[in-house]
Specification:
Distance between the termini: 24 Å
Order of helices and strands: EEHHHHEEEEEEHHEE
Radius of gyration: 18 Å
CATH superfamily: ApbE-like domains
CATH topology: T-fold
Strand content: 25-35%
CATH class: Alpha Beta
Largest sheet: 8 strands, antiparallel
Number of domains: 1
Length: 248
């Protein structure tokens, strides 16, 4: 069973390889994504993050999930040597670089706890998969050509991994370098990261993209992560273990 809904301003898709999966499972997971959107969207006037940015909520009054996300954002800032920072050039908090991967990971965990072991969850191109049935092929995920989004430049086979991509070819200049916030990021147009958990893959993809040419080297140095970057000239650079995931 497979279903897609537009939530958080993007298509979110859930597929479960189990004919007995009831509609209520999909409704529950999509309801969770709706809650995340209503809590963390900087574009919603009633969201908790908007109330925080307007100075109408003190840290001691933050919800538990908000406190958790702020803590994860601070950890990510340290892990990326300051290249991930939710304080934007506009002077507001925008935790979306952590929230998307964090929420996909939670949604996948919801499905796993219900006993499903062959599924994928995708939100805006970031994917967490689970495939325990070895009689089936791995899930396939494509890396888009940033110069022709209707074409894949690589197809990956994933069993229990996640992939996240940061770039400017669809959403424009929505990521910034905290050390030079006024400069557009033009050296790298796409950077994909594979990891065991979509939360980590997503946050590291965002931080690495802000590093531009240095980003793929940052991913290379991380344990259990692989990356693939494409620069403005169309030249691709991949980490040393990336090819193990390439399939046809």
């Amino acid at each position: 069973m497979k279903e897609t809904r537009i939530i958080m301003g993007m298509p979110i898709t859930i597929e479960i390889i189990d004919s007995s999966a009831p509609q209520s499972v999909f409704d529950e997971v999509f309801a969770y994504f709706t809650y995340v959107d209503e809590t963390f969207s900087i574009f919603k006037s009633t969201s908790e993050i908007t109330v925080i940015n307007e100075g109408r909520l003190l840290p001691a009054q933050y919800s538990q999930d908000m406190q958790t996300v702020f803590q994860l954002c601070e950890e990510t800032k340290k892990d990326t040597h300051g290249f991930f920072d939710i304080m934007t050039s506009r002077g507001i908090y925008d935790p979306s670089g952590v929230v998307k991967g964090w929420s996909i990971a939670h949604a996948a965990d919801m499905l796993a706890k219900k006993g499903y072991d062959n599924f994928y969850v995708e939100a805006g191109g970031d994917i967490q998969v689970c495939r325990n049935d070895v009689s089936l092929p791995p899930w396939k995920a494509g890396i888009r050509n940033p110069f022709n989004i209707h074409e894949n430049i690589a197809v990956l086979g994933l069993w229990h991994e996640a992939i996240a991509t940061s770039g400017t070819y669809i959403r424009g200049q929505h990521i910034y370098n905290p050390f030079s916030p006024g400069d557009e990021l033009q050296e790298i147009v796409s950077l994909s990261v594979i990891g065991k958990n979509i939360y980590d893959a997503d946050r590291f993809a965002t931080g690495a993209f802000a590093m531009q040419h240095d980003g793929i080297g940052f991913i290379e140095q991380l344990d259990d992560f692989e990356g693939y970057s494409i620069d403005a000239c169309g030249i691709a650079t991949k980490t040393s273990g990336f090819d193990q995931y390439i399939t046809t």
